[in-house]
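PROTEIN DESIGN WORKSHEET
SECTION A - STRUCTURE
LENGTH: 596
TOKENS:
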């Protein structure tokens, strides 16, 4: 039941220790139930509650309430459980056990977390190679709000999983291949003075808008002029067969676009680097083998001049199986073939144990078919976990798909600028003493953090309304609120100067100290839950609840003016709260400034 001495940096949570105690009490009372899950959760009625009796009592033909009462007898002092752990065990309702831990273990837990390098969080993902496919914008197009969601959610998952010890491989599946490039290159060729490199453009051209403008012009020509369209198609063939000049032009477009994406990643504090880019073009040389091997496996067949794999499980409205298109009638390869080559590469060459695709929910069917085909082809074993980490559509404050007045999707830079502008006003009002340079810096941190937090704190699969005013508010469940809560604690700690934080575990505990200490002890559990559910909003909720527990504590318990031992113990709580908020925000990819 004690902390494992071999993993010194891991501080087992009290929830886990209580669960282990209940489990072992169950095992000694009913040997046939050894190792049963006692279902221990946080509770409003006590520190923790065990709901296990309800299901387990059936196995030993007892009534839940009797089972719980008997179990309670094994748990208290003299019942065999480490005497230090529980101070109170009560049966409640139809067979719940309300469990409260001693002040002593709680203070010890605070001290242990504070001393541990990573606040004692376990490395539950150690040894798991996890590929995360996220961001994946399309070259020569704007990175829009949908890509923003993928970028922000994927980055947070990459951070959390890596923090828990996973061997994370980030993959940016850039849309850098296919028919549009013939059109772009041909257009550039025919319009030698189509300026589109940002360096050649007037001030104010945003990071990605220049290639995007080229895309629009080329598209207009393509739609208006059938001969240009034909020349563009010939160009695609030239590109695919490696014609030097065409490939050079393609590289130029990709590089310019990637520079633009890189600027946005830098502003957002996204981990992706050029080394993480493995765009669609990367898989070009692997496509023939995919089609050949799926044919050899008897999965691919000809259909209307195309080569397809019909799904074994998904049917369309007409009742016929839905196909993945391996080779189009014109002989070209597309998105489906590329994703098959991609999953195969990740499995066979990257040796992934888990693959996550952080992509718009509207691509659910596509991924279902890709995973199904990979499984049928025996590339994908049951031991590997592949998941489409789907997210909903971004809506405006009125609940309509997010667009500009002209009906275009809204560019990211404009959107971030708007959030930073609002944050500047809000922060400036709150803290008029800040000088302009510092206000600018804090507004950028707060505005960018606000956008990211808003993306992350809503349930991932739901559609999500983008509302700049709400997201930069100082009150409520916002990034700004959490950043501000962190700065307030830092200022308390600055006020304490060099005062020591020696924890006296023999001291009593105020209910508000207790609530905060229990919240802080749940950090690792919250992260473990994010890793299992792939839902960063659970970490947001955890941090918000913890910040509120801190506020309650600070209202009830003076820190700097308290006499010893409360002084040192409360400083320890302040320090652990600040560190938890900072690390937690960091795992969301959000900065926690010292002041704001
Ligand atoms: N580029 C695609 C888009 O913008 C997303 C790619 C997602 N990843 C993948 N492996 N298909 O919709």
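SECTION B - SEQUENCE
RESIDUE ASSIGNMENT:
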């Amino acid at each position: 039941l004690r902390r494992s001495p071999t993993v010194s940096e891991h501080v087992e949570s009290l929830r886990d220790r209580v669960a282990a105690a209940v489990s072992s009490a169950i095992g000694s009372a009913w040997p046939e139930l050894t190792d049963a899950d006692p279902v221990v959760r946080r509770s409003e009625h006590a520190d923790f509650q065990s709901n296990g009796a309800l299901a387990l009592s059936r196995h030993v033909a007892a009534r839940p309430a009797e089972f719980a009462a008997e179990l309670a007898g094994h748990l208290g002092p003299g019942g065999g459980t480490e005497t230090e752990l529980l101070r109170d065990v009560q049966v409640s309702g139809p067979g719940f056990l309300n469990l409260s831990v001693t002040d002593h273990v709680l203070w010890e837990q605070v001290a242990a977390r504070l001393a541990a390098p990573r606040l004692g969080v376990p490395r539950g993902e150690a040894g798991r190679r996890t590929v995360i496919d996220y961001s994946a914008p399309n070259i020569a197009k704007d990175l829009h709000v949908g890509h923003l969601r993928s970028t922000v959610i994927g980055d947070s998952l990459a951070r959390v999983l890596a923090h828990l010890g996973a061997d994370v491989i980030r993959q940016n599946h850039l849309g850098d291949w296919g028919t549009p490039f013939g059109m772009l290159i041909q257009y550039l060729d025919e319009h030698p003075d189509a300026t589109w490199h940002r360096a050649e453009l007037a001030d104010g051209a945003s990071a990605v808008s220049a290639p995007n403008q080229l895309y629009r012009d080329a598209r207009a020509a393509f739609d208006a002029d059938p001969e240009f369209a034909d020349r563009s198609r010939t160009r695609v063939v030239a590109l695919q067969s490696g014609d030097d000049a065409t490939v050079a032009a393609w590289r130029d477009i990709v590089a310019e676009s990637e520079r633009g994406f890189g600027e946005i990643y830098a502003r957002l504090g996204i981990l992706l680097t050029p080394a993480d880019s493995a765009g669609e073009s990367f898989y070009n040389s692997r496509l023939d083998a995919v089609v050949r091997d799926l044919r050899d496996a008897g999965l691919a067949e000809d259909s209307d001049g195309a080569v397809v794999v019909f799904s074994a499980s998904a049917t369309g409205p007409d009742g016929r199986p839905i196909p993945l298109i391996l080779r189009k009638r014109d002989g070209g390869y597309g998105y489906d073939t590329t994703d098959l080559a991609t999953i195969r590469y990740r499995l066979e060459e990257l040796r992934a144990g888990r693959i996550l695709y952080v992509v718009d929910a509207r691509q659910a069917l596509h991924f279902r078919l890709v995973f199904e085909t990979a499984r049928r082809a025996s590339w994908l074993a049951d031991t590997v976990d592949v998941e489409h980490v789907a997210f909903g559509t971004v809506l405006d404050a009125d609940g309509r798909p997010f667009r500009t007045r002209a009906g275009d999707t809204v560019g990211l830079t404009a959107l971030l600028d708007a959030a930073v502008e609002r944050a500047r006003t809000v922060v400036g009002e709150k803290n008029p003493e800040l000088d302009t340079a510092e206000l600018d810096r804090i507004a950028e941190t707060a505005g960018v953090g606000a956008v990211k937090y808003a993306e992350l704190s809503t349930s991932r699969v739901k559609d999500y309304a983008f509302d700049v005013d709400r997201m930069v508010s100082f009150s409520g469940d916002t990034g700004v609120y959490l950043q501000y809560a962190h700065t307030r604690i830092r200022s308390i700690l600055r006020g304490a100067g060099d005062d020591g934080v020696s924890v006296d575990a023999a001291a009593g505990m105020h209910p508000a100290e207790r609530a905060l200490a229990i919240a802080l002890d749940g950090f690792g559990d919250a992260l473990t839950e994010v890793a299992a559910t792939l839902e960063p909003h659970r970490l947001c909720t955890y941090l918000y609840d913890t910040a509120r527990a801190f506020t309650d504590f600070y209202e009830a318990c003076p820190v700097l003016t308290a006499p010893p031992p409360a002084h040192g113990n409360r400083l320890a709580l302040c320090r652990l709260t600040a560190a938890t908020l900072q690390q937690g925000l960091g795992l969301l990819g959000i900065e926690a400034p010292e002041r704001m």
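SECTION C - NOTES
The two ends are 43 Å apart (CA to CA).
Confidence is low (pLDDT under 50) at residues 1-7.
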